[in-house]
Amino acid sequence: MLIEFFFCVRRYGVKTSITELLDLLAALERNVIFADIEAFYQLSRTILVKDESYYDRFDRAFADYFEGVAEVDIASAIPEDWLARGLQRELTAEDKAKLQSLGGLDELIKQFKERLAEQQERHAGGNKWIGTGGTSPFGTYGYHPEGIRIGQEGSNARRAVKVWDKREFRDLDTDEVINNRSIQVALRALRRFARTGAATELDLDGTIQATSRKGGLLDLQWQAERHNAVKVLLLFDVGGSMDDYIYECEALFAAARSEFKHLEFYYFHNCVYESVWKENKRRHQQSIPTTDLINRYSSDYKLIFVGDATMGPYEIAYPGGSVEHWNKEPGAVWMKRLTDHFTKVAWLNPQPQERWHYYHSISMMHELVQQRMFPLTIAGLQKAIQALA
Amino acid sequence: MSSSHSTLSQFTSTDSYIVSNELALAVNATITLEKPLLLKGEPGTGKTRLAEELAASLNTNLLRWHIKSTTKAQQGLYEYDAVSRLRDSQLGSDKVHDISNYIKPGKLWQAFTAEQRPVLLIDEIDKADIEFPNDLLHELDQMEFHVYETGEHVRAAQRPIVIITSNNEKELPDAFLRRCFFHYIRFPDAEILAAIVQVHFPNIQPRLLAQALEVFFELREAPGLKKKPSTSELLDWLKLLLAEDMQPEQLQQAHQKGGLMPMFGALLKNEQDVELVEKLAFMARRQGR
């Protein structure tokens, strides 16, 4: 009873459970659809898939199960000339030199075909197409699988394209490392409720007291509703080595933004010096003196740095150490001013913790934030929140 | 949609609402299997409208529960009005002896006890606190709950048709998703969109519509728009074009000359987007020369 199909869908990484399988079977039993493969596709998708980012995986699983995608030998279907021309066009002189070291274009195409065959198999196991890992030589030369539409070459030649072969939801598929929800759940621990705004809630204790003071004559007391009153100041390191962690930072930022009402954020590069800025585009026109941060935000703001702290030690320790401008005072002095003012400070580092000890600058920064540097993972985030609470 | 065996009436497009086959199937599965249907999609693709049209086509009541950031799950079940009771006790009213006089049923309660199977719309569930969906798990699954103040047990006489919409502001917990069917309303293609427009403006000139749709889809393709215009924006825009008695030629002329389309305010909702489209049009015009 569709058990193979169910396992096939799960193998492609769609998180679906027995409850949903039973629902699907119940729907079939109730004749919601009848002997119509397209309707079955739509129905099973409605019941088994719970997020549009999984639609693409589901489409692939469906195609695999009902059509047997693996039987098409794509590698032999691609004309060699065409491939070579396509690659040549994308290459710079430098790349071509590198290419020679790999044994020339012919060798590369051979490798590509081998890789393609191999990936076809792995693809059936639930992995992604060529080019996403970043280790493939084809990726570095600017080759993109969608450019030659591997997914459709095979199926177009064979028959009319079916709905699930169109794979229209491919853009929505994301392999999220840490998702928004888990970050938000972690950030929740930082909530501090305080009563602010209009008094709309009945204050029971107050009412009892006031009423007894009046000898039993009812005297209702009101209080404001509780809102999350925690204040957060986020300082993001941008550019340079941080480019690798853009996704993690975006996820953190999005989660923080919807969780905290009082959230302020600024950017810096590598280490905080005399100024920070709010918009990366206009950082040179519209930077804000770091002393303003100290004056503007009260010390009960929780200060969170997000950065990899990976730089030359002189960028922290010496005047003029900044890679971008001449700083009169060393970064360490500015870090100390900030940590002196804000009592609750944490540093989130997207660099994996195993690699921290390779960089002297990380241990220096770790020292400067009083050992409150944590990796940007869910566990690290939880520890950071504990340190901030 | 060949469910000729089913005794239930099938939900299809109506005179005033165009529904894709996929969505109709999802809705019919929801009605048959009595599970909540979670709808996602770009704002303005008719998620809320669906519930209204569904209730109208089934000839039943629509109960709307609009979720806000302060909404709590308990409010959907019932609220105990302690304040009125205290006041009444002071006035010596007889009502005060019966606590059930002060229990106000919420939307779920109303849906559970309705005489005819109603449509319950839980609108924009992602606006609520992150724990909100978890607090409703049992109630939506078993369709029953307990009233602590009176010891009453409320159980659904018939399971209401539950439609839940989300704008993806927060991710929903897995346990909650397990209990729902899910459908992502895709942005309609040109053909369906034209059908939708026909429903709203039956007297529109075909040439004006074609021209307007061309401008509209081109605009949606523009990279980097903060808010892509959606169906409801298109309808607003067409309404303005018709009110101004705009001719297709005028629209085409404006389009070829570059610059913003007439009445752009209906399509573009923030100044960065307006600026972006202006720039794109300017670039297109320079390339054209």
Q: Over the alpha carbons, how many angstroms does the gyration radius of chain B reach?
A: 24 Å
Number of strands of chain A: 9
What structural class do helix, strand and pairing data of chain A support? Answer: alpha/beta
Approximately how much beta-strand content do the residues of chain A carry? 5-15%
Domains of chain B (count): 2
How big a fraction of the residues of chain B is strand? 5-15%
How many discrete structural domains of chain A? Answer: 3
Word description of this protein:
The complex is a heterodimer of chains A (389) and B (289). Chain A folds into three domains: 1-175, no CATH class; 196-227, no CATH class; 230-388, Rossmann fold. Chain A has 20 helices and nine strands. Chain A has helices at 3-11, 18-29, 37-48, 55-67, 74-77, 80-90, 93-101, 104-124, 137-140, 145-148, 150-158, 163-166, 180-188, 204-213, 246-259, 290-296, 314-317, 331-341, 360-368, 378-388, and strands at residues 193-202, 222-228, 231-237, 262-268, 275-277, 287-289, 302-306, 345-349, 373-375. In chain A, helix 19 (360-368) links the parallel strand 8 and strand 9 (373-375). In chain A, helix 1 (3-11) crosses helix 4 (55-67). The longest helix of chain A is centred in the first third of the chain and has 21 residues, at 104-124. Chain B has 289 residues and is of the alpha/beta class. Chain B has two domains: 21-185, P-loop containing nucleotide triphosphate hydrolases (Rossmann fold, 3-Layer(aba) Sandwich); 190-288. Chain B has 13 helices and nine strands. Chain B has a five-stranded parallel sheet with strand order 2-5-8-1-9, sandwiched between helices. Chain B has a two-stranded antiparallel ribbon with strand order 3-4. In chain B, strands 6-7 form a two-stranded antiparallel sheet. The chains are: A alpha/beta (389), B alpha/beta (289).
